[in-house]
Amino acid sequence: MMITDFLNYLRYERNRSELTVRTYKRSLVDFESYFKNRDSHLSWESVDSDIIRDWVESMMDKGDMASTVNNSLSAVRSFFRFALARDAIKNDPARLVKGPKKQKPLPYFVRETEMDRLIDQPQMWGDSYADLRARTIIILLYETGIRLAELIGLNDQDVDLTTRQLKVTGKRNKQRIVPFGKELETILREYMQLRNEQSLHIDPALLLNNKGRRFSRYQVEYIVKTYLSKVTTMKKRSPHVLRHSFATAMLNNGAGLESVCKLLGHESVSTTEIYTHTTFEQLKKVYENAHPRA
Fold this sequence. Notes:
The chain has helices spanning 2-13, 18-38, 49-61, 66-85, 112-120, 129-144, 148-152, 182-198, 217-228, 239-252, 257-264, 269-272, 274-290, and strands spanning 159-160, 165-169, 175-179. It has 294 residues and is mainly alpha-helical. The longest helix is centred in the first third of the chain and has 21 residues, at 18-38.
């Protein structure tokens, strides 16, 4: 009866969707089944915080994701608040129960061997201006680790080919200097020369579309997805994957965490630390494949 009243409250007073109502109902029925199986004498009025914690642990033990467990716990919390407000129970046992922390997913990245194959093999690229522009975009993202918005925001004046530096404008208009190598210098010179020969150059942007205007996010995303598809079957094939690939390659080849943090434009090293998990996973695989007792 209490569950029905709560669901009607969600449906008619809070105007929640039927999908939300069904989701809440499923979580409440699951919890009720759990505590009834533990002790048939238990009721919504008599369950305590420990029972709820045990239920949360049981979901984790079954392999439910942290987000799924937290959604179920949220439904139970809402129910107890509703019941307490209507004097159906004397205290709220869910108030002090904390859900599991959501694990940050490890970043997707393209292996160095795959990037080498994409960039270095001539058969991956054509000879047109569009092909050269696409190759410039791929190498720019991979060799500097800049964000998509930072890439399309680059103007010619932000590129110093003599000192091999980019002046990048990041989040909240913070600027940083990002160095690049001889390979990127060479392809930038080739691209800019051919672009100037073929384009109207209406816009001061580095990357121009066929009408001489600044490249859009969609156009860059399409190019990156198209070319990464030639060397990887990963579901995510975005400009941000190339940013992850840059950071992972830097750390794998001996760069310090603070240096990579500065290059990426992160405000805190803690943001960059997610890439150390990736490199450690690689290290574990090397160990498992190489050590005779692993």
